[in-house]
Structures are given as structure tokens and as C-alpha cells.
Specification:
90 residues, mainly beta, two-stranded antiparallel ribbon
Length: 90
């Protein structure tokens, strides 16, 4: 059984305050995440090893956006999103 069988996936966007490394101006940016929530019950056809993995599984989010564009009209440069973790537990 794969890890995807233990979770329900759906995309979600959240706003974060991020400072542009080029111009230094902070701004509110929408960052898209893939939210994986643990299912209430173990799927059918699971063996003992799958039950142990399901017991240890936690809900988490994976960041989908790696690059953002600056909102400053004079800058407009793209930059890496390094100030936010790429995986966050819920």
C-alpha cells in the first residue's frame, strides 16, 4: 500500500508576508500548498506493516510554489521562496 492511500489531498493557497531580496520591500504573497490530511480509517486490504505506518502518519502540507514575482512595480523580479518551509506538519 502506498502513502497516498493514507491521505486525502487538496490544493490550498495561503497568504504570507515575504520580503523581496532584490528591492527589500515586504509584501503579501499567496503561496499554494498541497494539503494532505490523514484519513479517518485505514483503507481496506491493509496488512500489519501498513497498520503500523498508518498509526505513525500525520497530516502535513507541501509547498508547491518555489518562485514568486515581486509586487513592487519598479522591481518585478522573480525570487526563490526560502523563508517558508517546504513541508509543514498540521
Amino acid at each position: 500500500m502506498e502513502e497516498r492511500d493514507f491521505f486525502d489531498e487538496r490544493p490550498e493557497s495561503r497568504t504570507h508576508t515575504i520580503t523581496c531580496p532584490h528591492c527589500g520591500q515586504p509584501g503579501e504573497y499567496e503561496v499554494s500548498w498541497l494539503v494532505r490530511r490523514k484519513k479517518a480509517q485505514l483503507p481496506r486490504g491493509a496488512d500489519d506493516r501498513d497498520r503500523a505506518r498508518f498509526a505513525k502518519a500525520q497530516s502535513y502540507m507541501v509547498r508547491r510554489d518555489d518562485m514568486l514575482g515581486c509586487k513592487n512595480i519598479r522591481c518585478r523580479k522573480r525570487f526563490d521562496v526560502t523563508s517558508i518551509q517546504s513541508v509543514a506538519f498540521i
